[in-house]
Here is the input.
Amino acid sequence: MEDANIVLHNQNSEDFVIIWLGTNNVESDLKSRLRHIVNCSELFNDPDECIDYISSITKEKVFFIISDSFARNMIPLVYELPQIFYIYVFYSKNHNEKEQNDNYLKVRGVFFQKDSLVRKLSEDVIACSNCLTPISMLNLANEKPIRDLLKDNVTFMWYQLLIKILPLMSKNEIRNDVKSEMVKFCREQYNENPIVQQKIHEFDKDYSSDKAIGWYIQDSFVYRLLNKAFRTENIDIIFQFRFFIADLHQQLSKLHPSFVHSLSGKTFRTYRGQGLLVDELEKLKHNIGQLISINSFYSMSTNREVALLFAGDGEGLPQIESILFEIAVNTNITTTAPYANIAKQSFMDGEDEILLSMGAIFRISSIHKESGTNVWIMTLLLVGSNDDDPLKQLTNELGNQIGNEPTILTLGKLLAPMGEQDKAGRYYQMLVNKKPTDPHIVASLYNNLASVYYSKGNDTLALATYQKVLEVSSKYRWANHPSLASTYNNIGLIYFRQGDCETTLKNYEKTLSLLSPSDPILAAMYPYDHPLRMNTYMNIAGIHDSKGEYAIALKYLRMTLESRRRTLNKNHPELADTYNNIGYINNKIGEYSTTLFNYEKALEI
Here is the structure.
């Protein structure tokens, strides 16, 4: 039973789990009502199994219902678990004595009626769901080099990449196939929830690209699955929804120009009321004047009073503070996140709703508690991509790396250097599973996936996957194309790490032979000073150094130095590495004056 429950949990794609301990006689109707509130609703009779399951949860928040027979002993045991958000005590029949839970703020009440329990649970889930806006702080110190800016702002870069790459992917796929893939995924997530299954059926039957906004702003499976995916950076779900995300962004992009034109260059103010977890509010309070990025689609209202209703009164919800975002939007700035008035698509009467695309950037102007209330007011300013020098530098570098013609491989290629090896690997594997028909794409996917395995130290999988690259190239008769040089070089690196110098050297030699094509067109594409040739020379030098063959090692290092001096800036760090390596070998063979010269040259750079 425990294993089955944990499997269900691993498939949970929403933000919450309802767990009920002590449920011998829960009617099927009540189970259905719970699943309508939160799809993943689990029932337990055994306290130990229940605690094990709660402990296995890593990302979701738990709404925990305890039947009266377990409450006295279980509440102290589970109260401090970080997974537990709120607790509800349910009595199966009227009871004259009420448990004293005043010291347990997470306990939302004692309930004797199922209707009152379900109503309270529903209210709390809605309030909590409004707290989970995925926000990331941008770390943009002026003095940092671009490489550090990229690493320090991985989450921001990730979402900027997504919104650029997903429309490209959607454009190059068969729309009905991608939609069917998404619908199938959603049905699997809600396989025991007939109410949501009906909604998915409606989506499958009626959806079109001009209805993306309408579907997103409903409190439906689309909104719930996507918001959790954005908050947790879940590449699996985001990939399943790729065509919908592209539709939603493009629909906003189409509406944006006319909306901005209607405002005649004015700055307008919008509002968003919601709850915010206490620790998230504290982080924001310590970053006044700094930039934040909203990593999902973001709805706002032009009506302050309506937004205040969504904020709540700041009372009665432990761990949650009421907050009203007051957002100033200058329509003259250039933003990568289009926005538009979606009143025509909204189901809320009397509310002028503004929807902003994902990846919007704001500066925190101020945070204060409104006089006479328990509501925090946070003023934000929408920032353009050219409004801040480090931000401009970061977005320019992103544009340079993506290039003018990004492909479906681009996202993975940029994730790996940013330290997101796991995401890159999952992304490549999902593309492989789609069985692309272009053999060049297939070979590139295997090559990139193998590089991820290598970086994670999995030599066995890396070698097996590189072998697939060679099999594809042999099948389509480009086994001697220079593009395979990097594959052989990487195979050599694996064998070197395993201590097999002879096999390593054979692969490096194959690399060099592929980089010397007889075809004049290919020779122009892969000139003598090609960077991979120089890296291979360095690697060969390392092999001969490990074998004590220092003269041969120096020969390859000096060839590397000559080439890099011809092609690189005199202060390039790769030149410093080369001088340093030459000095290292000089020192080994006792050429101390030459050693000193090369070390000094490295230090000068």
